[in-house]
TrEMBL record, chain A:
Protein name: Acetyl-CoA C-acetyltransferase
Species of the source: Solirubrobacter phytolaccae
Enzyme Commission number(s) from the entry: 2.3.1.9
Enzyme's top EC category: transferase
UniProt domain Thiolase C-terminal: residue ranges: 282-423
PANTHER family: ACETYL-COA ACYLTRANSFERASE FADA2 (3-KETOACYL-COA THIOLASE) (BETA-KETOTHIOLASE)-RELATED (PTHR42689:SF1)
UniProtKB/TrEMBL annotation, chain B:
Leader sequence segment: none
Sequence similarity: Belongs to the short-chain dehydrogenases/reductases (SDR) family.
One Pfam family hit: adh_short
UniProt protein name: 3-oxoacyl-ACP reductase
Entry's Gene Ontology molecular function annotations: 3-oxoacyl-[acyl-carrier-protein] reductase (NADPH) activity
Oxidoreductase as UniProt keyword: yes
Annotated Ketoreductase domain residues: 205-359
SUPFAM superfamilies recorded: NAD(P)-binding Rossmann-fold domains
Protein keywords: Oxidoreductase
EC number in record: 1.1.1.100
Length: 423, 419
């Protein structure tokens, strides 16, 4: 089958904010629209009809069933630009890139935007489940007496709303608690987590300093940089924080875990011809992607270990190893997740028992890992993380002039999405 | 079946008082199971680690190794799904057994690897835990295991050293299995040599146990039967074959009885006729010697021709034979003579000969001892208690099934007496 190369032309995002901060009153649609408009402005797409816009959010209001299409209609793109939503927890952002890239590769479309948005501030609070049942029954009731009977089921406790939970439906454990189990299983220390976190802040601060994010970010609601970024973060300061997951002797703190965040991101993808016709740059090419899932419910596998399975599959298909990769972008949901994943990839037992491979993938040198910082520094508005990473990695590859980068993103439900970019 | 002192030390008030005044606190040893009963930590990188990992895999043992330890390569090759242990990370990891391959230690400077492996892990051993060091004949390891055994013994933990001959790595399985499970409850501080002899499971084999109707002999017969052997119990009465082994016709009778073949011969029958040497007339000396040593020698000569390929001879010697005991010159001479019998035999066709040397075992014989002597005898070992007949029997069953040859293994809880 003939496929076309998929060019990553560029990206745009708004700075990520801590929840209940500057974006407390911005909705998913507001943020996604602003992000699309920033991209439109950057690449002169005002009034242009694109072939497709794909985006998604993890926390969605019921009114947002066609979030992306509504955002397109509110943006400066031509209103006849088609759009749709997809969703795969924290893998949503990267999954939208895959969706657009695949259609371009197949020749079904020439250009599209992939994106993601999330707010932990403007959360979709719903009515109490008991109350909802009563209201639905009330609606179904035909006669006055049966309506009256239904109303007698109202109880004071039903005013308590249904709030989205940050826990796994089938285990009842929060993502942090699941990660604490992984940290224990892999013997991850507090010190190495704090080191990863400090490094993330320092590297992202340095990237801002040299203007790396200048053409990747558009200020929004008075915020010019990621609010969570602390350039003066250090191992010493992080070491003072109390553990928040894993009990009293836990190793995970607010400093080495990502905070709840608000934000949005977008990536412009096109065929080479489309980009060249418009004189637009090609930062890098989207090469391939892979997903995997683990059984954290029955087999007790680490909830966020799926990328450890997905990446070897992807590299195998590409016929390459770690030595052929120049840059690694591993989403830092928690420093412990990154540390556990790095361990798995260099562990001969994991290679043999879980991957059925003779040798482990190997070590990832620190100077190739998250070179411009990661989610620990930027924050992690769930569905917006994929777009942030794709745009940043494409630009980093463009700066190098050539090379290959991989992206690894873990997601709720025991899933993982990974991808390869090339220049 | 704990002795009175052990029972007292497990009761609330007496145990508190006992602890306060520093009396030994014997723990109840785990026995019987053929499973480790907890997580095994494997460490050290030598030529035996992979074989050890294969044994753990075959046992289905819950295993772990340190991360980034070369031993993980061995574990991976053996197909052992080992968990990760990092002493630096806070984790409530406890271990039932620690197995360390010391064959990677090539010079004295490398002995520090013992400290490095055990320092962060010995405190994580559970009660009735196991330590097995795999060596290549280096004597330094013996000093280590014997001392560690004395440190951890009061918690019911045993420590043993297994020297594995070059090329005999694949013969480790029956010995490591035995040492890791509760079956070796009372075997500690021992040095075992594993050579090229192959395992030959006891199941389906025919065994003769002398003195098999009571005490340790009955326990040996029971355990061999449990393992699937057809056991012929020989004794003066209440036995399958009622015969005095010192009778002149005994060798011929037995050779005829087993004309079709015998697989396992256990010389267990024995008597004591204690008296200090100055009060030991010749008949007292010699009548004991007849039962304990001369009859076994004659029976061995008579039965060796009918012993099948991969046959097994196991003699029940005694700690007294090794450490010596006042009033037992005759007994100790005879029991040490059994060790000569084992080591002096010229064997072929895969036949092996080994001896077990019980220490203080709770039997009718020891129950008849004066209270003071008995109490001291019980406590003077690393495990702070006497052994049970079944402990000797399990050891005999291991020797009867494994391929180890010319070993003398004490079942004494690492008695303070004797080397």
């Amino acid at each position: 089958m003939n496929t076309r190369r998929v060019a990553i032309v560029g990206g745009n995002r708004i700075p990520f904010a801590r929840s209940n901060g500057p974006y407390a009153h911005a909705s998913d649609q507001d943020m996604l629209t602003a992000t699309l408009d920033g991209l439109v402005e950057r690449f002169g797409l005002e009034g242009v009809r694109l072939d497709e816009v794909v985006a998604g959010a993890v926390l969605k209001h019921s009114r947002d069933r066609d979030l992306t299409r509504e955002a397109v209609l509110g943006s400066k793109l031509a209103p006849d630009t088609p759009a749709y939503d997809i969703q795969r927890a924290c893998g949503t952002g990267l999954e939208t890139v895959i969706a657009v890239a695949n259609k371009i590769a197949l020749g079904q479309i020439d250009v599209g935007i992939a994106g993601g948005v999330d707010t932990a501030s403007d959360a979709p609070i719903a009515v109490n489940e008991d109350l909802r049942q009563v209201l639905l029954d009330l609606n179904r009731a035909k006669s006055l007496p049966s309506r009256a009977r239904t109303l007698t089921r109202l109880r004071p406790g039903q005013v308590v709303p249904e709030v989205p939970q940050n826990s796994e439906p089938r285990t009842g454990l929060s993502m942090g608690e699941h990660t604490a189990l992984m940290a224990k299983e892999w013997g991850v220390t507090r010190a190495e987590q704090d080191e990863l976190a400090a490094q993330s802040h320092q590297r992202m601060a340095a990237a801002y300093e040299r203007g790396f994010f200048g053409d990747l970010i558009t200020p929004y609601l008075g915020l010019e940089r990621d609010q969570n970024l602390r350039p003066d973060s250090s191992v010493e300061k992080l070491a003072k924080l109390k553990p928040v997951f894993g009990g009293a002797d836990g190793t995970m703190t607010a400093g080495n875990s990502t905070p709840l965040s608000d934000g949005a991101s977008s990536v412009l993808l096109a065929s080479e011809e489309w980009a060249k016709e418009r004189g637009l740059p090609i930062l890098a090419y989207f090469a391939d992607a892979q997903t995997a899932a683990v059984d954290h419910v029955h087999k007790g596998e680490g909830l966020l270990m799926a990328p450890a399975y997905a990446l070897p599959k992807l590299l195998d298909r590409a016929g390459i190893g770690f030595g052929d990769v120049d840059l690694f972008e591993i989403h830092e949901a928690f420093a412990a997740q990154v540390a556990a994943t790095l361990r798995a990839w260099r562990d001969p037992v994991f290679a043999r028992e879980r991957l059925s491979q003779d040798a482990p993938l190997g070590e990832i040198p620190s100077e190739k890992l998250n070179v411009n910082g990661g989610s620990l520094a930027a924050g992690h508005p769930f569905a917006a993380t994929g777009g942030r990473i794709v745009a940043s990695l494409a630009k980093a590859l463009d700066e190098r002039g050539s090379g290959r980068g991989v992206i690894s993103i873990c997601a709720a439900g025991g899933q993982g999405v990974v991808a390869i970019l090339e220049k | 079946m704990a002795d009175l002192y052990s029972q007292l030390m497990r009761m609330p008030v007496t145990s508190t008082v006992g602890k306060k005044i520093g009396l030994p606190q014997p723990v109840e040893l785990a026995r019987g199971s053929s499973e480790v009963g907890g997580r095994v930590l494997l460490g050290g990188a030598g030529r035996v680690a992979e074989a050890a990992a294969r044994v753990l895999k075959a046992m289905g043992a819950d295993s772990a190794t340190a991360l980034d330890d070369p031993v993980r390569e061995s574990a991976a090759r053996a197909g052992l799904d080992a968990a990760v242990f990092n002493p630096e990370a806070p984790a409530d990891q406890k271990f039932r057994a620690l197995v360390f391959d010391a064959t990677g230690i090539v010079d004295s400077a490398g002995l520090v690897e013992l400290q490095r492996f055990f320092y962060p892990t010995v405190g994580r051993l559970q009660r009735s835990g196991r330590v097995v060091v795999l060596g290549d004949g280096r004597r330094a390891l013996e000093g280590f295991t014997r001392s560690l055994g004395k440190e951890v013994g009061p918690r019911g933990v045993t420590v043993n050293l297994v020297h594995v001959d070059e090329g005999a790595e694949d013969q480790l399985a029956p010995t490591l299995r035995f040492l890791l499970t509760p079956r070796s409850a009372y075997v500690s501080g021992q040095v075992i040599q594993v050579g090229s002899g192959s395992e030959r499971p006891v199941a389906g084999r025919t065994a003769l146990v002398t003195g098999g109707s009571r005490g340790i002999g009955a326990a040996i017969a029971d355990v061999l039967e449990r393992e699937g052997a057809t056991v012929v119990r020989l004794d003066l009465k209440d036995a399958d074959v009622e015969l005095d082994i010192t009778a002149p016709e005994a060798p011929e009778v037995l050779a005829e009885r087993f004309a079709d073949g015998l697989d396992i011969l256990v010389h267990n029958a024995g008597v004591t006729k204690d008296r200090t040497l100055a009060k030991m007339p010749e008949d007292r000396w010699q009548s004991l010697m007849e039962v304990n040593l001369l009859a076994p020698e004659r029976l061995t000569d008579a039965l060796l021709p009918v012993l099948r390929d991969d046959g097994r001879i196991v003699c029940v010697s005694s700690m007294a034979a090794i450490a010596g005991n006042a009033g037992q010159t005759n007994y100790a001479t005879s029991k040490a003579g059994l060790i000569d019998l084992v080591t002096g035999l010229s064997l072929e066709r895969g036949i092996t000969a080994n001896a077990v040397a019980p220490g203080f075992i709770e039997t009718a014989m020891t129950a008849a001892m004066p209270v003071g002597v008995r109490e001291v005898g019980r406590r003077l070992n690393s495990l702070r208690q006497g052994g049970l007949p079944v402990d000797v029997a399990e050891t005999v069953a291991w020797l009867a099934g494994s391929g180890v040859d010319r070993n003398v293994v004490r079942v004494c809880g690492q008695s303070l007496l004797g080397a």
